[in-house]
Specification:
This protein is an alpha/beta fold. Among the domains are: 193 residues, Rossmann fold; 96 residues, ANL, C-terminal domain (GMP Synthetase, Chain A, domain 3, 2-Layer Sandwich). 29% of the residues lie in helices and 25% in strands. The strands form five sheets. Strands 2-1-11-10-12-13-14-15-16 form a nine-stranded mixed sheet, with helices on both faces. The protein has a seven-stranded mixed sheet with strand order 7-6-5-3-4-8-9. The chain is globular. The structure holds adenosine-5'-diphosphate. Adenosine-5'-diphosphate binds next to strand 14, strand 20 and strand 21.
Length: 538
């Protein structure tokens, strides 16, 4: 028997209409390049978003065509997030930290028709302009000046009358946005999101057991809007009616701290590198900033070490919430909130759970496959993490050979090595490419790094596999010491020996000034592996 429920399509239209109806006076604040704050309301935003949709139509953009954005986190990017899909086109966010080769490839592969770009990013466009041809280039100009042959965003909007905008009833499976992986482990691959996947991702994200957002929240996404839709925050926050604070180009810890205080931020989200820097500033002068409004710092994109989670909580009363996801998973996959059933654990055991990547969001399912099939959920057995759910990619855009990333029964193979425990918590042990395979056994580089970063003299640590004649591979630790602190190789090895078996301990520790980072702030292990490939030979 079929149900008699309406076949109501899950689209962004419903999020926009709700915002218009309920939250017209809620604010969206942006830190401008000169550090002043631009502010307007949801009402203003909706008006301009409708004008944008009309302007894109006037430019001749057709249903399903791609419109690329090359922008920081700000209110105009927020308008593009909604205005492009509202007129039926596909929002394609470009990672502005990628090199010209990658950008040229990505724009060509996605066949972007329009590029919308911040005026202060035009010099970066110069570097890849010969590699791709757009029909229009629209500039977000602060002084009304745009280079010849390009269009002024504000003028396009001025020419439109928002009352002419009408919502179209889209099919919920229609493409809404696309994003290319940042290529940490190879050539960028395109993921195509739908109205439906974004709506469900937002609903799950808003839940108490996930990000727990509502209209009292003030949310500042540090995660760039060019990286996996800023983890969906521009959609989830609007669905809940929260205030948004966009940091503009000011993503350094100092500027962020200023914005947290000024706007009374309650929730913020970003990759660990941001929080390492912030912790150092707070440790130096714990009273300098009143951060009492903040109730969670969401950390994902790379592992958040237990020592960092403890450091924020114990020394500054700030709660770090660890989450895991991928471009292919929209990205929210798991979140490490504590289940009520774990309330009786000791403080230390609770930190152990919070340092895991967490339990799956509702509607997301996980399993772990070892060499001989699926492994037990015992918190120990490692294997490749597989995932499925309504906001997980079912394939890559125009990439024939992507079938090896999916199982025969349709699960996505993440390439992450993980464990699942009896409580349903997942823990990432490594990326399969980063595992150290020593004498046929696996050593988790992430476990070693996290422990090293808990040493008081260590600011950052990356552990990589280095070829070894006898053992095939051995771990090497690359360490950045904290300002004014010192530690020797032997000291750090002894420190690790307290926790790990002898054969896990790095064969050497090299001290460097800086660890190279990817465009989204992760350790560039590929570069480290190349640099140190002969390190253990002699
Ligand atoms: P890229 O592939 O360029 O790094 P993604 O942002 O899609 O781009 O990266 C997803 C990967 O980041 C995951 O597969 C995982 O390896 C890593 N990752 C994400 N969140 C975490 C986390 N909380 N802990 C450890 N690794 C993480």
């Amino acid at each position: 028997m079929q149900s008699l429920m309406m076949d109501f399509q899950l689209t962004l239209n419903a999020i926009m209409r709700r915002a218009e109806m309920l939250f017209r006076n809620q604010e969206i604040v942006t830190r401008q390049p000169d550090k002043s704050y631009h502010r307007y309301t949801y009402g203003d935003w909706i008006k301009r978003t409708k004008k944008l949709a009309l302007a894109l139509r006037r430019l001749g953009i057709k249903d399903g065509e791609r419109v690329a954005t090359f922008c920081w986190n700000h209110y105009q990017h927020h308008e593009l997030y909604y205005g492009i899909p509202a007129m039926g086109a596909v929002l394609h966010t470009l990672n502005l930290r990628l090199g010209p080769e990658d950008l040229g490839y990505i724009c060509g592969h996605a066949e972007d028709k329009v590029l919308v770009i911040d005026d202060n990013l035009l010099p970066l466009y110069e570097k890849f302009k010969d590699k791709v041809k757009f029909e229009h280039i629209v500039v977000l100009s602060r002084d009304g000046q745009v280079p010849e042959g390009m269009l002024d965003y504000e003028k396009l909007l001025e020419a439109e009358d928002e009352s002419q905008f009408e919502y179209t009833d889209w099919d919920e499976n229609k493409a809404i946005a696309m994003c290319y992986t940042s290529g940490t482990t190879g050539q960028p691959k395109g993921i195509v999101y739908s109205h439906r996947s974004m709506v469900l991702h937002s609903m799950a994200g808003a839940m108490t057991s996930v990000l727990s957002l509502n209209d009292e929240d003030v949310v500042l996404p540090v995660v760039p809007m060019f990286h996996v839709n800023a983890w969906g925050i521009p959609f989830t926050t609007v669905m809940c009616g929260g205030k948004l604070v966009y940091p503009g180009p000011h993503m350094d810890p100092q500027s962020l701290l200023e914005a947290y205080v000024a706007e009374k931020v309650t929730v913020t989200a970003g990759v660990p590198t941001i929080w390492f820097g912030m912790l150092q500033i707070l440790d130096k002068d714990p009273k300098a900033y009143d951060l009492s409004t903040i109730r969670s710092l969401i950390v994902g994109g790379a592992a958040a070490p237990k020592s960092m989670i403890e450091g924020f909580q114990k020394r500054h009363n700030l709660k770090v919430v660890h989450a895991w996801g991928m471009t292919e998973t929209s990205p929210m996959g798991t979140i490490s909130n504590l289940k009520a059933s774990l309330a009786d654990l000791s403080e230390d055991e609770k930190y152990d759970y919070r340092a895991k990547q967490g339990f799956p969001c509702p509607m997301i399912e996980l399993r772990v496959r070892g060499e001989e099939g699926l492994v037990a959920s015992d918190g120990k057995s490692m294997g490749e993490l597989e995932i499925r759910g309504p906001w997980v990619a079912s394939g890559y855009y125009k990439l024939e050979e992507s079938s090896d990333r999916f199982t025969e029964d349709g699960w996505f193979k993440t390439g992450d090595i993980a464990t699942l425990d009896e409580q349903g918590y997942m823990e990432i042990k490594d990326r399969s490419k980063d595992l150290v395979k020593s004498g046929g056994e696996w050593i988790s580089s992430v476990d070693l790094e996290n422990e090293l970063m808990g040493h008081e003299a260590v600011a950052e640590a990356a552990v990589i596999a280095v070829p070894h004649a006898k053992w095939q591979e051995r771990p090497l630790a690359v360490v950045v010491l904290s300002e004014g602190k010192s530690a020797s190789r032997d000291e750090l090895t002894e420190f690790l020996a307290k926790k790990f078996p002898k054969w896990w301990l790095p064969d050497d520790v090299v001290f460097v000034k800086e660890i190279p980072k990817t465009s989204v702030g992760k350790f560039k292990k590929l570069v480290l592996r190349e640099t140190y490939q002969n390190h253990l030979m002699g």
